[in-house]
Write a structure and sequence with these properties.
This protein is an all-alpha fold and about 270 residues long. It has a domain of about 60 residues. Helices cover about 65% and strands about 0% of the residues. One of its GO terms (cellular component) is nucleus. InterPro entries: CCDC137.
Length: about 270
């Protein structure tokens, strides 16, 4: 195989046949020595750039449109009257021979920048218009609600004023009697009024509702009294009886303590 290295014996034999002090051949001469690609790229940079510029200029002359902004603007203004210049430019928008992708992308972005800007402006204007319409509609609805509430309150006041005037014109005899009599000794205070700490009570409360089982106990007590038994008030002690019981309790406690002391001393 050509990529395989020959045996060492074969290589040594060829070296002996060719000799040791031999002039270099044409293949290994300095002028035919290969230069690395990176070095050749640096040495031939000016030539490569010149060739690329000439190729690009030839392509732009053939198509009639170059990458320069001035030429593109002139062509756009010339075709702006008919309106078909932009369409032809967009349809003919393709990469040129010798043009890199970066330059082509930049050219596409520049050609579409005006259209994108117009679309953004129109969308923002539409959004502002919709927002203004929504605000106007909400303000209108709010005014309508406030007007309706004011009308309802005015109607209620009007009805209340009419009722008061009717009551003043044709008062009932009970109301007239109450007005003539004036305020009572103990007036009733409305429960909706706030109760404060230092309020003075005008009268004791009237407990109209009886406690639970009061009627039943009263009936049982009445029947027992009629039958010769005890009444409900029989087991209730008076204040004098309570005082006497308290004195007796104190005396019994004192005597008990004295007795305990005597036992402890004896």
């Amino acid at each position: 195989m050509p990529h395989k290295r020959a045996k060492r014996s074969v290589r040594e034999q060829k070296r002996k046949e060719s000799g040791s002090d031999v002039a270099p051949g044409a293949k290994k001469a300095i002028e035919n020595e290969e230069i690395p690609k990176s070095v050749s790229r640096v040495l031939n940079a000016a030539k490569v750039r010149q060739e690329w510029a000439e190729k690009k200029r030839k392509g732009s002359e053939d198509d009639g449109a170059g990458p320069s902004r001035k030429r593109r603007k002139q062509s756009g203004t010339g075709d702006g009257d008919t309106g078909g210049g932009k369409q032809t430019q967009q349809t003919q928008l393709r990469i040129m021979p010798g043009e890199s992708m970066a330059h082509f992308n930049r050219r596409v972005e520049e050609s579409m920048r005006h259209t994108v800007k117009e679309a953004m402006q129109s969308s923002s204007a539409r959004m502002r218009q919709v927002r203004k319409e929504e605000l106007a509609a909400s303000e209108k609805e709010k005014k309508k609600r406030t007007a309706g509430a004011e009308e309802r309150t005015k109607g209620r006041k009007r009805i209340r004023a009419g009722d008061e005037s009717d009551s003043d014109d044709d008062p009932s005899p009970r109301k007239a009697k109450a007005k003539e009599a004036g305020p009572k000794d103990f007036e009733k205070i409305s429960t909706s009024a706030p109760k404060r700490l230092n309020d003075i009570v005008q009268a004791p409360p009237n407990i109209k509702q009886l406690p639970r089982k009061a009627k039943k106990l009263a009936a049982q007590g009445g029947s027992q009294k009629d039958a010769g038994g005890q009444s409900l008030s029989d087991g209730v002690r008076s204040m004098a009886q309570k005082a006497m019981l308290e004195e007796e309790r104190e005396r019994a406690i004192r005597l008990y303590r004295e007795m305990k002391k005597g036992r402890a001393a004896g």
